[in-house]
């Protein structure tokens, strides 16, 4: 590799990292009155949307989607319009993933071979493969989210590896996880330890020891500092988008902006905020959007990136 090629490679890699601002993720699909997926994306507030949930899979079960009142997955073609919405979101630069699990349903992985079978099903029906029964038609999702809250948690590391093997230079299969904030997570610890997850949106709610409570953010920030060390691409702060979205852990937007975000967004792996869920987001994402990205490592005054060849600068701050 020539010196110029090496320099350009370093610049491209660092430039992409510097330009990647933080963003907001949310979950869509669990309430018929939350509007369409396309409408959620058109707000301009989200960078990532998880379609929730595939609630039945593994151990020889026929996989089943549960999308509340949005469509009837058991009726062929009923959910095909969502495929058009997925494509519309992706054209706006929003990554759309399918979320596995949730707090209801019947799912488990009995063995690494079972995990491989589930990975093959996901590839053929939601990712880059082919099947006569693709619920969203020709739409190709960007990846798979693990929101595993039931069962033993065994073999999800094998599922992550099997999905990661489907990534190519042309199309990456993104992986995300939504662990509870007590560390390590009882269901996803082994999977996250693979180091294959691009996004980890930790649920800092419904868990008294590690959530915001009574105006005090200290427990949450302490837990965040622990989670920020895990081997993953980016870590997100998962919070309820309204008091009714969770049993506990709600943070008023102004408190999030003044008490929490200034203490976490300089973390090297800080990726932003995850909101549960789109249905409950009646202005929360709008209220916090600018502050979520307020600690981005890039700035208007320049990135601080300087590259030179033979003493001659090829890129740098003016």
From TrEMBL:
GO molecular function, one term: endochitinase activity
Signal peptide: 1-21
Assigned keywords, A-Z: Carbohydrate metabolism, Chitin degradation, Disulfide bond, Glycosidase, Hydrolase, Polysaccharide degradation, Secreted, Signal
Subcellular location, record wording: Secreted
GO cellular component terms attached to this protein's record: extracellular region
UniProt catalytic activity: Random endo-hydrolysis of N-acetyl-beta-D-glucosaminide (1->4)-beta-linkages in chitin and chitodextrins
Chief place of localization: secreted
EC class name: hydrolase
EC number, UniProt record: 3.2.1.14
All residue ranges annotated as the GH18 domain in the record: 22-295
Domain of life: Eukaryota
CDD domains, per the entry: GH18_hevamine_XipI_class_III
A biological-process GO annotation: polysaccharide catabolic process
Family indicated by similarity: Belongs to the glycosyl hydrolase 18 family. Chitinase class II subfamily.
Protein name: chitinase
Organism field: Chenopodium quinoa
